[in-house]
Each structure stands twice: as C-alpha cells, then as structure tokens.
Amino acid sequence: MNAAHLHLVLQQARRGDRAAFAQLVEQYYPRALRFALQMLRSREDAEEAVQDTFVRVHDHLAGFREDAPFDPWFFRILGNRCRTMLAKRKRHRDFIEYGDVPYDAAASERADLPDGDFAREVHRALDALPPEQREAFLLRHVNEMDYEEMTIVTGAKGSTLRMRVKRAVDALRDTLQAPLRAGVFHE
Amino acid sequence: MSDHHAPQNGHTESLPDDEIMLAQVKAVLSPLPTVNRQQIAQILAATQHRRRTPWQRFAGRVEQALEWWRFSTPPMARGASLAAAALTIGFVARGYLMQPRDTSALTPDAAHMAAAPASPATMAAPALTVNGAADAAAQRVPVQFLLDARDIPAAANVSVVGDFNEWSATATPLTLDNGVWSTTLPLPPGRHVYAFVVNGERWLADPRAPQATDADFGRPGSVIIVQAP
Which of 2.30.130.10, 3.40.50.2000, 3.40.50.720, 1.10.1740.10 would CATH assign to domain A1-110? Predict the structure, then answer.
C-alpha cells in the first residue's frame, strides 16, 4: 500500500467505511503482530495487544490528523499496549514469586522460540535486553523507522533513542559475535 | 529512512562486523509471522458495532493520555510534575481561601453611604464595601444608592449608571424623597463602578464613595464592593 493509497483508505475509514478499516487491519496486522511478538514473546499476549490496538485505532481514528504520518501513530498505540502488557506481566510475576509457587519466567516463552541455533540465540539475546532497548532496536532495525518517527512512538528524545539502540546493538554483539566468529551456529 | 545499510549478498566481507551481525539479526527478525485469520475476524467483529457515548470517548482519551504520560515520563520527572501540579493547585486554592473578607475599615452598609463624611475625592482604593442580606435565589445583595438633593439643586431627574445596568442612563432612575434621591438595586457580589447622571447629561461621582481610578473615558465614577453574603 503506497502513501496515496493509505491516505485514501484512512480517509474512508475515518468516515466509517468498514471495508476501508478492514483493509487497514489486513495491511497492518502482520507487522503489528511481529512487533508485539518480539516485544512480548508470547503469542497470546501479542494477539491481545494487537487486537486492543486496532480497537483503539478504530475509536480514535476520527481524532487522527490526516496530514500526520500514520505509522508512528499506530506504533505509539501498539507500543503503549505492549508496555502495559509487560508491566502487567511483571506485576503478576512479582506476585507469584513472592507467593507459594515459584515462577519459571522462561517456561511459558520457550515454546515460542524458533528452530535453528542462530535464530534461537537472536531471540534469546533480544529477550535479555531491557524492554526500552528492545523496543528502540526493533523500531529502528526491524521496522526501519527513523529517529523522528521513533520519538513519536516512544516519547523519548532522539539522543536517548540513539543511546538505547547503540546499547542494544552492543549487547547483541557481545552475545552473538563471538559464537558467530567461531562458527558455532549451524543452520 | 535509514542511515544503516544492510549488506548485499556477496559483499559482506568488506563490511564491519557490526553490520554483518546486524544484517543476520535482521534476517532472523524481519520475516512476518503467520497470521491467524480468526484474529482479524475478531478485530473486525469487535469494532463493528462499537458506538461509544461521549463519556466513554472522554474516558478513553484520558486513559490514553495517562498511559502516554506514564510511559513517556521518567519516574523522577513524573514525581516532579505531580509535585508541581499539587503546588499549583494549592497555590490557587490558597488564593481563594485567603481572599480578604473584610477589605478595610470602610464597611458601611448602604444606609451609611449618605451619612459618611464627604471626602471621597482624595480617597484611594480600597473601595466602599457593602455587606447585606442575601437574596438567596440570585445570590445578590440589595444596595441602596443615595444622593443628597442639596448637592444637586437643579436636578429634575437623577439615575444611576454602572456596569450592572450596561451604563444605561434610563435603566435605573432615582426617586426624590425628603431631600434625598435614592434607589435600591440587587447587585451580584464583586466590585462595581458606577456614577449618577443628573438631568440625563451631567455625570456625577458619588461624593460619599471612593473615586474609580479606571473612570470611563475620563468621566467620573465611584467604586462599590459588594461582598457575598
């Protein structure tokens, strides 16, 4: 969907055109799910966050400025949903940890890791990043946003985002570079 | 869009290690996941009959703003902005609570106005203050305007004009009784500027009240402060 087509679809969806909104969902769902999965590492949580995001997009589409870029606005809502979900999960984990049953943080997430040594290690390394670094890295290098768009999405300043991305890359390098050089991974 | 250039196949040898590593990481993370069509159908169903009341829309906006604020503000800044908001509210509330109830010793009721010593021209604010019985329905206080007929011997008619009657020279005429021109008006609490108009043309400040410093276009005016009951 090019920019002109997206503009048209958004205009129609704002006017309540169901087909246009469906087109918008079709267009954005896969990218939204990819981002949510990589942020949350749980299919169930990711699908819930994405569904919530689209409901919010639907509700607030009338207030969306037509001349503003849609992607950052969309990912801002999605990012907020993911952060809320992470905070909820953390609260739940804290509760369980101090409760009777010890919580194995990774147990529910292992099932979602892909096959293949390197891919598995990438996901592990990504999971080990603090959420704000993971978010900045994914927006920059997977969703290919520029720092201006990332500022809209996260609310953080450009310099802060650059630092987060740099730290994320450093951490990934530390985790992945040595085994890569040694040729440990065989896909 | 990007200041990062992904390596092309076959040219990875000339790129720095970071670029190679990033390209490989991106290759792992970029493929789109398989989509469960049922999820898309659920989203469309969830939004199909979604009609929200204005209150729900407002609550949604507040929630969104709070969420945005919560995540985009560092904890320290959050605390600081909360403290600043609390201070501002406290400061404004204090302003209201500490509002002077009794602005000066000048607290005659309407009847005193006529009997007060006639030296208002040199008096600065605080202005004349009136406390009165409440007109509970409109929260207005009846105020009596008096003018000694000896001050205006040639007067055939006198009216009072002020911000309370849009400065209309015909809206509020005074009646002459026992050598005193008088009328009573229910006025809302607050500061009012007024004057008397003699014979429809001559403006006259109340000789027994403080002069208004903000007299209308140079014409004389007096000030009265009506206090809430």
Answer: 1.10.1740.10
